[in-house]
């Protein structure tokens, strides 16, 4: 289990896929607005603010959201968890 060493909680990492979502999105030359629009087309109502929080690792991501990101970004779930 991943735990933070932060005392006040301000630097807690809330997810481990946010940086990969951002990397994949940028590799596709998509803005956050484009990714959000594609999520909406997939019947997933996510806001740009929520996406920004996920990409910044300050919001938790549910298993359902992991699957949705995988589908919308057209990558495997394992790619979302890739290290490095």
Walk me through what this model shows.
The chain has 84 residues and is mostly helical. The protein has 5 helices and no strands. The longest helix has 11 residues, at 63-73. The model is unreliable at 1-8 (pLDDT under 50).
Topology:
Blueprint (H helix, E strand, L loop, with lengths): L17 H10 L4 H10 L6 H8 L7 H11 L3 H4 L4
Which features characterize this protein?
disordered N terminus; 84 residues; mainly alpha; single chain
Overview in brief:
The protein has 84 residues and is mostly helical. It has five helices and no strands.
Please report the total strand number as a whole number.
0
Shape: globular
Low-confidence stretches: 1-8
Share in β-strands: under 5%
Task: Please state the average pLDDT score.
Answer: 90
- List the secondary-structure elements in sequence, H or E: HHHHH
Give the radius of gyration.
13 Å
Main sheet properties: none
Percent helix: 40-55%
Compute the separation of the termini in Å.
19 Å
């Amino acid at each position: 289990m991943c735990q933070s060493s932060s005392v006040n909680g301000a630097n807690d990492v809330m997810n481990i896929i946010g940086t990969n979502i951002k990397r994949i999105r940028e590799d596709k030359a998509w803005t956050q607005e484009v990714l959000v629009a594609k999520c909406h087309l997939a019947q997933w109502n996510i806001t740009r603010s929520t996406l920004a929080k996920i990409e910044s690792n300050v919001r938790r991501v549910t298993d359902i959201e992991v699957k949705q990101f995988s589908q919308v970004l057209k990558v495997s779930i394992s790619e979302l968890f890739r290290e490095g």
